[in-house]
# Entry
Amino acid sequence: MAGLRLLAVILVGSTVFSSAQHSGAQAAMNVAAFSIATTGIVVWIAVDFLPALRKWRLPLLPWLLGVITVVSAAGANTHAGGNLIFLGFAACITVGSDLEAMTRWTIVVMGVVAVEIGALVYGASGEAWLGYPLILLVGALFGVNRGAYRIQAEQAQALLSRSEDLRHEQSRAAMLDERNRIAREIHDVLAHSLGALGVQIQAARAVLTDQHDVGRTVELLEQAQRMAADGLQETRRAVSALRSDTPPLNEVLAELTSAHQQRYQAPVELRVSGKPRTLSPDASLALTRTAQEALVNTAKHAPHQPVHIRLDYDEDHTTLTVTNTLTDSGVPREPAARLATLNGGYGLSGMRERLLLINGSLSVGPREDEWVVTAQVPQ
# Structure
């Protein structure tokens, strides 16, 4: 834009100074108008591009543009001064794009009045009376459109930047969700495996200290060793599940049922009702972890008691119910009475949190002489 201003000054100046060879008041008027307008343009360029003067742009710009417009318009009706109107045209473009409406139209009106006064003083033709004001008006309207386009471009840029920020936040939220999912999965796998292993080791210690049965203790420790190996395999399977689809839930529960019976010598019955269907990975995993946690708690607090697992595929929900028989008065028998809860009771809380994330529910509590854990997930 500064280059165009300088080009206009050069072209207009060549005309003005070529006509200044002829003496007379109009030639002097041309030179004076051109000099004042050029000085205003130089200062205008300076406040636009020099950092030290940029702070003065807002207060100076209306005055500079007003002087350039009025002086150029006044000199345009002199002999050979018609090209001066183009300096006013250039000023009116910025008037339309950068100034407020009241200031903008005040400067344009002042330029039009200056044209008409100059035409009256120098006896200009009818074309000058109408043509020069029209040039100033067209410049102002062009500037208005230019300013609107610039505002639109700035808004589009701001919207694009906001969109990028939103996309970044969504990506960050997705990353945090995935981290939380992996953290829950690792916690559940380790809590189940280490909890079961802890039960087995404490049982072995109880047998050794209370019954002094070395053979039975060795047998329990061998089972603990197998459980540790199974826990490692379960951890690997969990990591694999994070990368691929999980097997059908009824097959997973059948494996858990068989493993629990072998480890704890407790009868476990699994019943499936309804037509099995494929659940989402999160739903299937949540029900699997709930069953694991319930089985571990059964081994801790009601050893060797029958466990009933029921999986119901309803039309709108899939429900898992784990029921175990309590011992007399709800008090676990020895040696399990000495076994502390290894995860501090956070297991079922974690299950409830996992289920809530998929709009599921979890209820836990006694029912007559049974302890019932019920988890439900939507279709």
In short: The CA atoms of residues 98 and 147 lie 7 Å apart. DSSP finds ten helices and five strands in the chain. The beta strands are 268-273, 307-313, 317-325, 361-367, 370-378.
